[in-house]
Design goal:
Strand content: under 5%
Shape: elongated
Distance between the termini: 74 Å
Order of helices and strands: HHHHHHHHHHHHH
Helix content: 55-70%
């Protein structure tokens, strides 16, 4: 039986928040950073692996070293992503078996989770995507070997040849492939459930990340878009001195207007940093 719960968790990454200045609302900061990356052709990509899984006990190799995928999942994913994709694209199950025999290092929960994530991503775009059934089948192939390796108390990658050796028995082979065929609808159903959950989560996240109106009733995103590019760069670089220099070059009335709109939108929150408040307010004295 496949443990579907291991694909229930979601990885959430928010590295940009750590760089958010104290005087800028965090959701506005995220959008500003993303826009700058797009303009520079260096847009940050979301993690390839979206659906994670619960940790399971991993048996150690005799010398005590950890299995590569467990030791460094990110490095493993980067190193073998192309091979995972190729395995997922193989149409014939017997040829897919042959690929695993040639590349036993792919038999890991990480590969299984990656293929499920890929299937869910495709289902979000098109719930009737023709690739879903095949990806489900590939996940079940890997799952079968992992389960057998756990019973044999061996690392999955080291049990691949033994697993397929057992399948040379006609009766065992027939039972194996019938079981995979039987479980495909179960995986497909789980993908459908996660598709709905992910879409709801995305909607909720979008709502949560909508920056609220500032204290003066202005939308921070609209204010950001209305600022001269030089002022936008000041906020991005968190350079107070540069902000003062730019404001000095702008006509006093225009500078005052921009800063008032920043305060009214919550883009600039001077009370969060007294020193920054004093420095930013210097534009009114020039």
């Amino acid at each position: 039986m496949v443990d579907y719960s291991k694909w229930d968790d979601i990885w959430v990454e928010s590295d940009d928040d750590a760089d958010c200045p104290k005087n800028i609302e965090k959701y506005t900061w995220r959008r500003l950073v993303q826009r700058k990356r797009r303009e520079e052709g260096n847009e940050k990509k979301e993690p390839e692996l979206t659906d994670a899984w619960n940790s399971t006990t991993v048996n150690q190799v005799k010398d005590g070293s950890k299995i590569e995928a467990k030791k460094d999942p990110t490095e493993y994913l980067n190193k073998y992503k192309t091979e995972m994709d190729h395995f997922g694209d193989i149409e014939d199950i017997k040829k897919a078996d042959g690929y695993l025999i040639a590349k036993p290092h792919l038999v890991e929960e990480l590969t299984e989770g990656y293929l499920i994530s890929k299937a869910i991503d495709l289902a979000i775009i098109n719930k009737k995507d023709k690739n879903l059934k095949r990806l489900s089948e590939r996940c079940l192939q890997i799952n079968s070997i992992i389960k057998a390796s756990e019973e044999a108390k061996m690392p999955p990658s080291e049990s691949v040849l033994i697993f397929y050796k057992h399948l040379k028995n006609p009766e065992t082979s027939k039972l194996h492939y019938e079981q995979i065929k039987k479980q495909i609808p179960e995986i497909m159903e789980r993908i459908a459930v996660r598709r709905k959950e992910r879409m709801k989560e995305a909607e909720k996240k979008e709502e949560e990340e909508m920056a609220p109106l500032g204290p003066g009733g202005l939308d921070p995103t609209e204010v950001l878009n209305s600022l001269p590019k030089e002022l936008q760069e000041c906020f991005m670089s968190k350079d107070i001195q540069k902000l003062q220099d730019v404001l000095k070059r702008i006509p006093p009335q225009e500078a005052e207007m921009h800063m008032k709109r920043c305060v009214d939108s919550g883009l600039w929150v001077p009370n969060n940093a007294d020193q920054e408040e004093d420095e930013a307010d210097e534009y009114t004295d020039n």
